[in-house]
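Write out the bound-state structure for D-ribose.
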Amino acid sequence: MIALGSDHGGYELKKEIINYLEENNIAYKDFGCDSMESVDYPVYARRVANAIVDGECDKGILICGTGIGISIAANKVKGIRAALCHDVFSAEATRLHNDTNILAMGGRVVGPGLAIKIVDTFINTEFSNDERHIRRINQIEE
Ligand code: RB5
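---
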């Protein structure tokens, strides 16, 4: 189950991602927001982060205008590793190396075509399980 969250700056891109998930029969839960009305991104970062650490969802996708604020907020929650990615290489590398559980993007930064390729890569790339990457992730958690 993929947890989705955005503020108003990410709302339109989130709708494009929802279309992609539905077309591909990928289960998701949308934690808001629900319109272009101005809202505060930490609220949605926290909802999605909590859904992951509580085990309700496996991974999350967070979108604000830049992806920056919402990724900073999500990374404050223990157990969350959120990566801001605006290219496919980073999306693949962060799953392989960092076992990230949240993908953050900026709705004012990337178009829907690239964003969907990034989402597809993030969702379908498994963690490498490499010993050196596990060691580094454990150091982050400590
Ligand atoms: C909202 O205008 C904007 O600040 C927010 O979406 C995000 O870009 C913050 O990092």
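---
The first strand starts at residue 2 and ends at 6.
The chain has a mean pLDDT of 98.
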